[in-house]
Specification:
Number of strands: 10
Strand content: 15-25%
Distance between the termini: 25 Å
Structural class: alpha/beta
Number of helices: 8
Low-confidence stretches: 1-7, 11-24
Radius of gyration: 16 Å
Order of helices and strands: EEEHEHEHEHEHEHEHEH
Helix content: 25-40%
């Protein structure tokens, strides 16, 4: 890989965040929370409740899910709650919006967008790349300069675990993986997942829905 260190999605955030840049052994498994497909004015309250339980490294928000009239207000409120909880706020899709919203990083879904996004964001804001089930795409994303990968979207849990085990056994960049339920968490963590992404259904009752995920994370990683 072109990078030997790992850029973790969690940590303190400033207007131009400085990392954190961590060695592989320093990363503690944690959650990355995806926001609902559509956000409303009440979402920041639910977000604060979800973050209060800890073990969250980042929030992943798609700005297109915000009503246009509320977008600036919602992004600012979510950023404030993330800062209060020492959690990173990652946006999907547009590096310019990351700068405008003073967010901490970006998730991309196309390899060809990594280099232009890096020119906009510099080295301080981590860039993640979703590579689905493709091992080749994962390697290409690492070579293109991704700081972390989102692996296994659309795959059965067993294949997600196989992909994560392959990646974590060979490469140093951290990986996140969708985790459909707490029953799958132990398997994905044992395979080497650094970050679990629970389903968006957690937002109906975030504290109760996230509790078993946090229990799985608290257990010793094997």
């Amino acid at each position: 890989m072109s990078r030997t260190g790992r850029a973790a999605p969690g940590g303190r955030s400033g207007e131009a965040p400085a990392g954190p840049w961590l060695e592989p052994g320093e990363i503690e498994p944690a959650l990355i929370l995806p926001t609902p497909e559509r956000l409303d004015a009440g979402f920041p309250v639910a977000l604060a409740r979800a973050l209060a339980g800890g073990r969250v490294a980042a929030v992943l928000l798609d700005p297109t899910g915000c009503p246009a009239a509320l977008r600036t207000e919602l992004l600012a409120a979510c950023r404030a709650h993330c800062r209060d909880a020492t959690v990173a706020l990652f946006l999907e899709g547009d590096p310019a919006t990351v700068i405008e919203a003073a967010a901490d990083g970006l998730l991309l879904r196309a390899l060809e967008t990594v280099e232009p996004a890096r020119r906009v964001l510099g080295l301080e804001r981590p860039i993640g790349v979703a590579t689905g089930g493709s091992r080749h795409a994962a390697m290409e994303a690492g070579e293109a300069g991704a700081d972390w990968l989102l692996l296994g979207e659309g795959l059965p849990v067993e294949r997600r675990a196989e992909l994560v085990a392959w990646w974590s056994g060979l490469f140093v960049l951290p990986c996140a993986v969708p985790c459909p339920g707490p029953e799958a968490a132990a398997e994905l963590l044992a395979a080497g997942a650094d970050f679990l992404i629970p389903p968006a259904s957690i937002w109906s009752e975030p504290e109760a829905a996230l509790a078993p995920f946090r229990t799985a994370l608290a257990a010793k990683r094997t």
